[in-house]
Specification:
- The protein is α/β, with parallel strands linked by helices.
- It has a single domain, classed as Alpha-Beta Barrel (TIM Barrel).
- Helix content is about 40%, strand content about 15%.
- It is built from twelve helices and eight strands.
- α1 packs across α11, α3 packs parallel to α4 and α8 packs antiparallel against α9.
- The chain is globular.
- The two termini are about 30 Å apart.
- GO terms for molecular function: oxidoreductase activity.
- InterPro entries: FAD-linked_oxidoreductase-like.
- This is Methylenetetrahydrofolate reductase.
Length: about 290
């Protein structure tokens, strides 16, 4: 007797709610400081990334991590290699997160600066130090529309090689690993990329990045700065419609398409969603509550 995929048979709203189960979100210390009580806006146990912007003191990062951990959230601080001065600084950061906030999960990435401030340049180097060997979960960055800082436009050789290395690391490690992606505004590049990864032999789950509700102008600014690729066309087309220009853009369409794909392909690498709160943490949290 065939096993019925119950999610596949659900209406779109039900599929979307299922896909948003376990959704993660991120904050920065300065935005977190504006939230009086995270337990009032996010479900208990939500995985909260803490973005480390160059110049942010480690004390602000660890204080934010402790506050979130004390609130019952799973804390996942960023470790951007190119803003870390040296090996000793990396070890200090790891030790402080563990001792001060009980951190056991982290996102390792190269980071946005094109020129490293020190000797570290990639998430592979971070993994090779061994400082994260005691962590329960590690995530690495994925770029469904390419990363021009690593590969020339339209090419993927270097990022593909790096993901194969990280997959091999995951295979020999007891650490749970996943790929969290840059945000996209169109489901197709995400789906095509995940299917290509599977053909490459990648088995790490993909947490699909989307931008939370925000003004169109804000999203376009961030998309250009972050190197978002062809899916930027979704925003550019919307910007031509003056009736929509001033309305907040919500990720419902891309999330609904990803949810439908997941319902049709339950074994896909695409596992869940990750929200970048570009229009504010409270707006994104409210969107998750309304649709989850």
């Amino acid at each position: 007797m065939a096993v019925v995929n119950m999610m596949k048979n659900k209406p779109a709203a039900g599929q979307l709610a299922d896909f948003l189960e376990g959704v993660s979100i991120e904050v920065m210390p300065r935005t977190a400081a504006k939230v009086e009580d995270f337990t009032e806006i996010l479900p208990a146990g939500t995985r909260v990334y803490i973005a480390h912007i160059e110049g942010t003191p480690i004390e602000e990062m660890t204080d934010t991590a402790k506050r979130l951990a004390d609130g019952g959230f799973e804390v996942m601080p960023h470790f951007p290699a190119r803003i870390i001065k040296d090996d000793a600084t990396l070890k200090e950061w790891v030790d402080r997160y563990v001792s001060e906030a009980g951190v056991e999960t982290a996102l390792l990435l190269g980071g946005s600066p094109t020129k490293p401030v020190g000797t570290l340049d990639s998430s592979i180097q971070l993994l090779e130090t061994g400082y994260f060997d005691g962590f329960k979960r590690l995530h690495v960055a994925g770029h469904p529309e390419g990363n021009p800082d690593i590969d020339a436009k339209g090419q993927t050789a270097n990022v593909d090689e790096a993901l194969r290395w990280k997959q091999a690391y995951a295979d020999k490690s007891d650490i749970d690993m996943a790929i969290v992606t840059q945000f996209v505004f169109d489901a197709k590049p995400m789906i095509d990329w995940a299917e290509r990864l599977e053909q490459m032999g990648i088995t790490m789950p993909v947490h699909a990045g989307v931008a939370g509700p925000a003004k169109l102008q804000t999203l376009i600014k961030y998309a250009i700065a972050c190197g978002v690729g062809p899916s930027l066309n979704v925003l550019q087309k919307r910007a031509k419609d003056l009736t929509k220009l001033m309305k907040p853009f919500e990720p419902t369409e891309v999330l609904t398409e990803l949810a439908a794909y997941k319902a049709e392909n339950p074994d896909s690498l695409i596992e869940r969603a990750h929200v970048f709160p570009l229009g504010g943490i409270k707006n994104s949290a409210q969107y998750i509550r309304d649709n989850g």
